[in-house]
Amino acid sequence: LSLDTVREFLTREEDTVVFGLIERAKHPRNTPAYDPGYLAGGGHGHDASFAEMFVRESEAVQAKEGRYQSLQEIPFFPFRVPFTLAPPYNFTTELYSAAALVNVNDAIWSMYFNELLPLLAKNGDDGNYAATVSSDLVCLQALSRRINYGRYVAEVKFIGDQQNYTTLIRNKDTDALMKLLTSEAQEDVVKRRVQKKAMVFGQNVTLDGPVETGNSNSSQTSFKVDPSLVYKLYDKWVIPLTKQVEVEYLLHRLD
Ligand SMILES: O=C(O)C(=O)C[C@]1(C(=O)O)C=C[C@@H](O)C=C1
Fold this sequence. Notes:
Elements: H1 3-25, H2 36-41, H3 50-64, H4 105-120, H5 129-148, H6 150-160, H7 162-170, H8 174-181, H9 184-201, H10 227-251
Helix pairs in contact: 1-5, 1-9, 3-5, 4-5, 4-10, 5-10, 6-10, 8-10, 9-10
The structure holds prephenic acid.
């Protein structure tokens, strides 16, 4: 692992995040899918929403097939995932074991449903709840993988500057750790690149005329997901949460 390779991983995850958002934006809000009362009303004794049930049950299936054998993947319902049926695969473990399970999935969950989704999906209800929450799962998994990858970034940074990090970790100096791991120039690159990806991946492709670039002066250019929303997603939530993961990982790096 090096700073370049971990940044390459984050860059490739951007594509997954943007494509996921484009797919979710195809569906309307479909609020009943998020309402625990909707299922309870069906009299089946469920206390969770369709969305929660879908994520929980999908994670259980994926756990059996070994998804969470890889430390890159962290479930949202860790206490509900059954043992894997997959034969052991020798995943390399670059992470420090006492800090390897640090994650902010709870914060990602509430950010996604309470903050992002209302901005991403258009109002409406077409009844296609399973397809809708299945695209939510893809978004949640992509965001979780990207944000919790902060563990790997932190490991690289720690190894590259052990002396300074060790002092700050011993002093539990969260603010100084945050400052040391921050690169504002890099954050700016990331935010502008994801905004551009939303333009490139989310344009309407037709056979007539040139490929729309999004920065032409045609005001008709419309994108499947608002590029400024993707910028905002990274600026307000993805990068700050990644940094939170980095700090929490570092705080356990000497345990
Ligand atoms: O690339 C890094 O150095 C990271 O730590 C990742 C990241 C990000 O989330 O994109 C987070 C903190 C840095 O300030 C810059 C970027």
